[in-house]
Design brief:
Layout: E1 7-10, H1 15-26, E2 32-33, H2 45-55, E3 59-62, H3 70-75, H4 77-97, E4 102-106, H5 135-155, E5 159-164, E6 166-168, H6 181-194, E7 199-203, E8 209-210, E9 212-214, H7 215-228, E10 235-237, E11 243-244, H8 245-256, E12 261-265, E13 274-275, H9 280-285, H10 293-308
Parallel strand pairs: 1-2, 1-3, 3-4, 4-5, 5-10, 6-9, 7-12, 8-13
Antiparallel strand pairs: 8-11
Helix pairs in contact: 1-7, 2-4, 4-5, 6-8, 8-10
Bound molecules: NADP nicotinamide-adenine-dinucleotide phosphate.
Length: 309
């Protein structure tokens, strides 16, 4: 990518897309474009084709998707499969037809089988049954990465994919109804501190192991792949490090400076016991994460406090 290449970030206001825009700008890319959902509905094929015809982007980061937590995924599977297939089909096909030089498709670690060996290598894709609660979303994402592979194979399009682990950071969703574990805990500890509550309840036993990557690191990894990777196979993006939910809750408690107690409610589900990506392929390409968990949580907490002000 040249510094003045026209780069379209689809989903530029989301958690991932906004971080990619920040990263590109910090690296001196001057011609980054985006459209909100309202301005351009990516499920509308005609609108997408018109946009590509008029704007002729040279590079595309496909970070727009219909996303949600476990509840939304299992309640609205039809929407999750349909909307995501529509968005990615329209953008990938338009990128092909209007001769985009390179495209990066963003997936998610939920594409891997439920009972995968750990840490999860890229080659474990399609080696077993998916987690039923997010099967619709995962199937759309698998189709997206396969579509990139097949366009590369048949037409030589330089379309690549990456699969990030659990992300967190500025612009995260802190709504307790729909948020992931990290922002939910940050909010719970903050509110308990402000309201002088004696304890915070954490769902489950605290024993499951999870991996977390700061979204600015993820964006840096995505831009790095765009600049340095042309392979057919998708690439995992993560830290390769894991913490228990108990350790995570303890770090957040310290960062937020909550002095009360931490209580685990083991009547609530733990979810899968361990989920860790194998990141040796990414490290082999030459990229490694930089933001340690405690520093990343401080950053995310600061953003949350400012956002509610
Ligand atoms: N968050 C994570 O932990 C995580 C982890 C791994 C992978 N990912 C992947 O990263 C990608 C982005 O996720 P995110 O967390 O950044 O989600 P997000 O914060 O909800 O952002 C999604 C973006 O997509 C846009 N969008 C959705 N439907 C659209 C449509 N029909 N037309 C146009 N724009 C549309 C939204 O636009 P508006 O805001 O204008 O509605 C928003 O900017 C997804 O592919 C996801 O699988 C995320």
């Amino acid at each position: 990518m040249k510094k003045d290449s026209k780069i379209y970030v689809a989903g530029h206001r989301g958690l991932v897309g906004s971080a990619i825009v920040r990263n590109l700008k910090s690296k001196g890319y001057t011609n980054v474009i985006g459209k909100t959902h309202k301005e351009l509905d990516l499920t509308n094929q005609l609108e997408v084709r018109k946009f590509f015809e008029e704007e002729k982007p040279e590079y595309v980061f496909l970070a727009a998707a219909h996303v949600g937590g476990i509840n939304a995924n299992s309640t609205y599977p039809a929407e999750f499969i349909y909307e995501n297939l529509e968005i990615q089909n329209n953008v990938i096909k338009a990128a092909h037809d209007f001769k985009v030089k390179k495209l990066l498709f963003l997936g998610s670690s939920c594409i891997y089988p439920k009972m995968c060996p750990q840490p999860i290598k890229e080659e474990y894709l399609l080696s077993g049954y998916l987690e039923p609660t997010n099967e619709a979303y995962a199937l759309a994402k698998i189709s997206g990465l396969k579509m990139c592979q097949f366009f590369k194979k048949q037409y030589g399009d330089n379309f690549i994919s990456c699969m990030p682990t659990n992300l967190y950071g500025p612009n995260d969703n802190f709504d307790l109804e729909t948020s992931h574990v990290m922002p939910a805990l940050i909010r719970k500890f903050h509110e308990a501190k402000v309201n002088n509550e004696p304890f915070v309840e954490v769902w489950g036993t605290g024993k499951p192991l999870r991996e977390f990557l700061h979204v600015d690191d993820m964006a840096d990894g995505c831009v790095y792949l765009m600049e340095n990777y042309d392979g057919e196979e998708h690439v995992n993006i993560g830290t390769g490090k894991e913490v228990t939910i108990r350790e995570l809750a303890e770090i957040i408690k310290e960062v937020v400076e909550f002095n009360g107690e931490l209580r685990f409610n083991s009547d609530k589900p733990d979810g899968t016991p361990r989920k860790l990506l194998d990141v040796s392929k990414l490290e082999g390409v030459g990229w490694k994460y930089k933001i340690e968990l405690r520093d990343g949580i401080k950053d995310s907490y600061e953003w949350f406090v400012n956002s509610i002000k």
